[in-house]
Amino acid sequence: MLDSTTIVSQMAQLRGVLLLCLALLMSGCGANQVVVQSQFPTPVLDPLPAKVGVFFSEEFKTHTFVDDPEEKTERSWVVETGAAQVTLWQSILTHLFEQVVYLDALPETGDDVQEPAESTPSQPQVDAILIPTIADLQYAIPAQTNSKVYEIWLKYDVILNNPDMSPISEWSMTAYGKTPEAFMLGAQEAVEAAAVVALRDAGANFAVNFPRVPAVRTWLQENRISAEPVSSGGTP
Amino acid sequence: MKIIVNLTRVAMNVAGAILLQGCVTAKIDEMTYNRPEAGVGASSVVLLGRRHASDYDTEKDFVQCVRQHIQRRDETIGIIQEEAFLDELYPWFEPRTAPMHPSAIKELLGQPAVANKLKELDAQYMIWIDGNTERVDAAGSMTCGVGPTGAGCFGFGTWSDASNYEAVIWDFSNLAEVGRINTSTSGQSYMPAVVIPIPIIAPVQGTACEGIGEQLLQFLSASY
Known about the structure:
By secondary structure, chain A is α/β, with parallel strands linked by helices. Helix content of chain A is 33%, strand content 28%. Chain A is built from six helices and eight strands, in the order αββαββαββαββαα. The A-B interface holds A 40-46, 92, 178, 180, 200-201, 203-205, 207-208, 228, 230-236 and B 52, 57, 59, 86-92, 94-101, 104, 107-108, 110-114, 117.
């Protein structure tokens, strides 16, 4: 015979087991959440003698990639890269230019100004304004491609304007990172590792190729900012 | 008594099988010149893997294996760890920006910041390892099960791996290539299973690592 205390105790244990099973089932339904967090190495660059204003939009600073599954059996992916983007770009820019000023807002262009000067934000005292934006992020995991690597592609649009917001140049830049499938490395950790490789690649691509963009090169020459691009890569 | 003898024999056979390794065929080609007769001395060596190809990356653990092989045999050779070097010289040795020929180093040295950093590291040789190990064939099947009386597997699996690596040595003092070492290895691994799976693994990548490490050791060390 079981007394009431024993029954209550067993019911509590059973409830605990059921809750645990439910939690396990629920954990399989959530999205794959990846928050890219990384410290990037200090770039070895000779800074260009220029004072550049940099504007990171809210969208850039909080950049999050969301991919909903096509089939119900798959889990969605949420990849947050915003914080890592800001860390990387700040690291690159502070070493690429002698002076960097981070702008909270962009100065209004002549077309935007509705009223006379008192309502127009003053032009920042800089040589140029740089605005990087993330145009696209794509990923591939072994389950989708049958390959043995996790991959991340990033596409940036970079705008370089004069202080009055008249354009100097606008160009696109890509970055790529991959990490091999590894034993004991979960999909989320692998995607994060691939994102970190892609961000490093983005930094390298921008730092090395910025002075080679034709319009930027002309701007550097016109403003007597020394830029001797160094060739890298090439055929073996 | 007879049962104990049989059990001992089975245990010895299993242990023997575990100790077995699959066969590996290795081929090493070496072409080096301007070998440092007195070794690298107090200078250091940089050992890096190539990762610019779209379809493969030189494995980080392979580069580490070669470094460890050299340093185990001659502790006097200072080899800068790959990740530390890549961070110290970021962004100039990333897959996208890494120099592909020694003359590109000359252009890199035109930048004071890079030149100072390389001088600080005192690297005399830069060795690039390019290649990978891949599974070229696999066959067989194995079934494992768990029952009230125990667990076990039955079946047979076999696979073959192939490695192909090339080490290219650049001399920083005259910014020229001073050697190439190429190693190709292949081997067949087996896994028979009668209750217990017995892996007979061909150490394909390990043999390639030893082969390339030994040749690099002979180039870099004064003692070999």
